[in-house]
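Many groups now describe folds with learned vocabularies. In that spirit, our science desk offers one protein's residues alongside their backbone shape tokens.
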Amino acid sequence: MNIPTCGARRLKDGVIVVIVIAIAALIGVARSAAVNHTEETVVMPIAKAFPYEVGDSTRLRAFVVLDSADCSSNLGFLELFQRDTIHVRLSRLYLKGPRSGLASTATLLREKGINTPLLEETRAVERARLDLGSIDTPFLIVLDADGVVRLAMTSPPDIDTYVKFPQLLKSLWEQGVSDPLKIR
């Protein structure tokens, strides 16, 4: 095929433009994939979602996520943390769901003698709860001083578990930091 010089030059310039556009598109796709891959693989340690006060030397800290729809009987296990024999500190409570339920839930808790701070569930707490496999509330997580998950469970589901719950917490305390349940 005999192409005039002017046409050959246009064809050559057109091919170069197409190649440059294709390379730019590939670079854009590669960057986008790298950013998406990075966002998906960056995992925040569960302990980071559950902060505690600086200087708190408590060996075991408990955090509970609850919902304003949780009935009073489901929250009964929180009273166990008030016993002198329980060495696990109830550090914070988080409310899942609309902020409008914060005041009424705080009132219900105060009526039960629970004065632990109640905060709105953060995205980090929600992510940690879901990472631990919980969609139900109340959900309890116990962390040791190093931020290792020692216990993660929904509220005691039956009377047998409820009765044995103080012994479970005591056993966690006595166990110290040996043989922890490691989650991330």
